[in-house]
Structures are given as C-alpha cells and as structure tokens.
Write a structure and sequence with these properties.
single chain; 2 domains; membrane; two-stranded parallel sheet
Length: about 240
C-alpha cells in the first residue's frame, strides 16, 4: 500500500479551505460581473475585449470607472489617474499581508496580481490563526479570478437580455459581503475607530466631491485613525 504523502495532504487541505472561504464572495461577484459585461458591451466593446480587460486588469472598481467614462478616443490619462486612485489601496493591503504569507518574494509579487478586497480580508482573517500558505491563496484568489473572467464574458454575450441587477439589489451583494468580512475581525477599540473613521470620511468625500476620491481619502483616514488609536508602545 502506498504511503500517504503528508505534504500533499496538507496542500489539499489548504486548497479546500481557500475554496470554501472564497465561495460566498465568488457567488456575490457573479451578478456584478454580468452587469459589467453587459455595460461594457453596451459601450461598444466586443466580447473578446471584455474578456481581455477582465484578465489583464482584474479590478472591478477600476473597470467600472473606466467603462463609465469610455468614449472614442479613450481619455487615457484620465482613466489611468482614476484607476490609480481606486487601486492605490492595494499597496497598503499588500504591505499588510506580506509578513503573513508563506511565499518567496517572487511568489508574493505574482500572488498580488490577484489581490482583491475580498481575498485580502479573508487572508487577514486566516492570518489571525495561522500563516497564509501558497495553496490557500492560489485556490482562493484563483477561484475569484476565474469566476470574474467567466461572469464578465458571459455578461458581454448576454448583453441587454440581463436587465439591471440593481433592481434586485444585486449591486449591493459585494458591499454586504465585505461588511460581513470586516465584522469578523472583532470589535476592538482600534478596529471600530479605524473602520468608523474610514467609512465616515469616504462617505463625506463621495457626497461632496465624488468618485474615485473617496477611496483614497477613506484609506488614508483609516490609516491615520488606526495609528492614533493604537497603544503608544505599538507605534514605536
């Protein structure tokens, strides 16, 4: 009888945990992906172009921002600046995750291409108990990536047949999911101050100035609040 390889068993266990944890986010992403594909097709993009964009960019917020201002010829500098503001938070998210990942530097750089708000939150929550392994991350982030590419492509194919998912509240699915993920971090004073400050500043900036400035402002406010709320010894 062949002996069971404990290393392969551990890899399988980690991969299954990643798939299990990301399943709710993947399901919530489907109507958003379908909506993006339909909107992009309505703007004149081909199905192949939608698939290529989702594969190379893989950033729902940035893709929606780009498609909302899509004209011919495309305002490249405007799109690039908006994308930068929306996605600059990934620098902070990557810096937060880096010491908790059991990956080489090269593997980390590759892994962070697949970084999303949901995968970051799930990895941070898992890191409360154990390091984030490559198998866990690959299964979790890879599943969400494949799900996004397929759903946006299908949305482009179906186009106007879908209608508006906002009628059913599907556009709020990701937001509701992320609120649930944040709630899982606990209710410490630092967490509550950080989340509350970030949310309040983002809401105010969105109301008085508009997107995409609220993303960067909310992130900066949250960082400042976390620093000020942390114990003095933790700041050293």
């Amino acid at each position: 009888m062949d002996q069971i390889n404990p290393y392969r068993t551990e890899l399988g266990r980690e991969a299954r945990a990643g798939l299990r944890d990301i399943a709710p986010a993947a399901i919530a992403a489907i109507p958003i992906g379908l909506l993006f594909g339909a909107v992009a097709a309505g703007k004149g993009m081909t199905t192949a172009e939608v698939t290529l964009m989702s594969t190379l960019v893989f950033a729902g917020g940035a893709q929606f921002a780009a498609i909302e201002t899509w004209i011919h010829p495309a305002p490249i500098l405007t799109l690039a600046f908006a994308t930068f503001l929306i996605n600059v938070r990934h620098v902070l998210m990557g810096a937060s995750l880096s010491p908790k990942m059991k990956l080489s530097r090269t593997q980390e750089l590759l892994a962070y291409f697949f970084l999303t708000d949901e995968s970051w939150a799930l990895a941070e929550r898992r890191a409360l108990d154990r390091p984030v392994t490559g198998a866990y991350w690959a299964a979790m982030a890879g599943m969400l990536f494949a799900n996004w590419v397929v759903s946006t492509t299908l949305g482009a194919v179906l186009g106007s047949f879908l209608g508006d998912p906002a009628r059913l509240g599907a556009d709020f699915a990701f937001t509701a999911l992320f609120i649930g993920l944040i709630a899982g971090f606990g209710r410490s004073r630092v967490t509550l101050v950080t989340v509350g400050t970030s949310a309040a500043v983002a809401a105010l900036v969105h109301h008085f100035i508009g997107a995409p400035w609220h993303v960067a402002c909310g992130a900066i406010a949250g960082i400042a609040a976390a620093y000020l709320a942390a114990p003095k010894e933790a700041r050293a």
